[in-house]
Structure formats: structure tokens, C-alpha cells
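> forwarded from #structure-qc
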């Protein structure tokens, strides 16, 4: 409850760095609402003088740190063994500082996400820490889209919420037969309730293609971004069966 527990033996866990009251609660609710997620432990990490704000969330641990740059404290939350890290400070300066620390001390394969209000801060972090995925406020873009396409704001909110029916997920292609987007688009929709939205060459988003053409080749290592009512795991898809169902059509 007081945030003094030692988590140094943890691995493959999620770290939430920073405290934003209602937004932090929302982040945790959205993570926990994904019923088919990997059951990783979550550690909420703060510098504030406070006790565990969400003791009712049994999968959420709490750590109060002296500093996000203190090596001993980072070892206590097992920063180097975490699989995913979300950075969301009280302001952009705090987020930048925490993200720089996470970028330096996290494992190479860890996925780090940081949110900024100012795009300039996001650009600065992208330039110096390519292993951090930066998001920033897109108020202007959303306002224009809602003006030109009424209802777009509802679509935007639902696509990113695990609390409201269908939402966005992704999976990484491993060994699979030679195939194109057109070969799998309709079978994935019919057999698994998945609507393929985009593809990327890796988890960092390299070569990202939204609404790829049907003749786009798919290969191992690519990431498929799709809409579905729940997450579909890689082992649930038999790509040979998917291709055969396409041939039957």
C-alpha cells in the first residue's frame, strides 16, 4: 500500500510511469478490459507522496519511487525485465525525463509508449530515442475530421477503447504460407471476425500501410492491425485453413 515493495524478481510485466489521477485510472481499466491479454502483472510507479490509489485492482501493484533516474529504484521495479512501459507524466517535461530514463534502462525488446501534449516534445524524443513510440494530442486533426465527416470523433474514441465493443488489436505474422492481403481479408472476417486495417514491417511501425491494396504481399515478421470484438491470438489462426477457405469461395 505504501509503495515500498521490491519487484526486482518480476519479468515480462507492464510498467505505468507517472500519475494523472482519472487518466491513469482509465489507462488501467482499458488494459484490464482486454480479457484475452497476456496476464502480465502491472506496476503503477509514481514519485508522489501517496498510497496505492487502486487497491481494488488485484492485478495492479504500486511502487513509490524517490526518482525515476535512481538506478536502485529502477532495479526495484525491474525496469530491465519489463515487456511494456507506458510513460504519462503530469506534464510534458516530466514525461520527457521519464521516457529518456526508460529508453536507457529498458530491455531492447521492450515496447515503450509516451504521451505528449506538444508535438515538439514528441519529435524531440523520437529523434533521440527511436525505441520509444510517441503519441501526441491531435485536436486539430480531430476537429477537422468531425467537421468534414460528422461522427468521426465517435469512431476515433471507440477504435481505441477496449470498453466499447470492437476495437483495434494487432498480431505478428510468424511462419505462414505465401499470401496477399486479398487472400486473407475476407476469410479473416468470416472465420475470426477480424477486419484487417493496416500492416507494418515491425512492431515499431516501419513501412506502415493503412488500408493496404489487395495485392500486397504478406510475410513473416509483419504486424497486422485489425478491428475485432476481442483479441485473436496467433495460435488461433491456421493460415492454411484461411487460404483454403479463400479457394473454396
Amino acid at each position: 500500500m505504501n509503495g515500498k515493495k521490491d519487484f526486482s524478481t518480476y519479468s515480462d510485466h507492464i510498467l505505468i510511469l507517472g500519475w494523472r489521477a482519472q487518466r491513469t485510472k482509465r489507462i488501467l481499466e482499458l488494459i484490464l478490459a482486454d480479457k484475452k491479454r497476456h496476464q502480465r502483472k502491472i506496476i503503477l510507479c509514481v514519485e508522489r507522496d501517496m498510497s496505492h490509489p487502486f487497491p481494488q485492482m488485484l492485478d495492479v501493484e504500486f511502487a513509490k519511487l524517490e526518482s525515476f533516474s535512481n538506478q536502485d529504484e529502477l532495479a526495484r521495479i525491474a525496469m530491465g525485465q519489463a515487456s511494456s512501459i507506458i510513460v504519462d507524466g503530469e506534464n510534458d517535461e516530466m514525461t520527457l525525463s521519464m521516457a529518456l530514463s526508460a529508453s536507457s534502462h529498458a530491455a531492447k525488446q521492450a515496447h515503450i509508449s509516451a504521451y505528449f501534449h506538444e508535438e515538439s516534445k514528441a519529435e524531440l524524443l523520437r529523434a533521440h530515442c527511436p525505441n520509444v513510440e510517441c503519441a501526441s494530442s491531435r485536436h486539430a486533426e480531430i476537429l477537422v475530421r468531425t467537421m468534414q465527416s460528422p461522427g468521426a470523433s465517435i469512431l476515433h474514441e471507440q477504435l481505441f477503447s477496449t470498453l466499447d465493443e470492437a476495437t483495434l488489436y494487432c498480431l505478428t505474422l510468424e511462419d505462414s504460407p505465401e499470401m496477399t492481403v486479398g487472400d486473407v481479408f475476407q476469410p479473416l472476417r468470416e472465420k475470426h471476425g477480424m477486419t484487417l486495417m493496416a500492416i507494418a514491417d515491425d512492431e515499431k511501425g516501419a513501412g506502415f500501410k493503412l488500408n493496404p491494396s489487395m495485392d500486397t504481399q504478406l510475410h513473416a515478421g509483419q504486424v497486422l492491425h485489425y478491428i475485432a470484438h476481442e483479441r485473436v491470438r496467433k495460435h488461433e489462426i491456421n493460415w492454411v485453413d484461411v487460404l483454403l477457405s479463400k479457394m473454396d469461395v
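QC bot note: The first helix runs from residue 22 to 33. The two ends are 58 Å apart (CA to CA).
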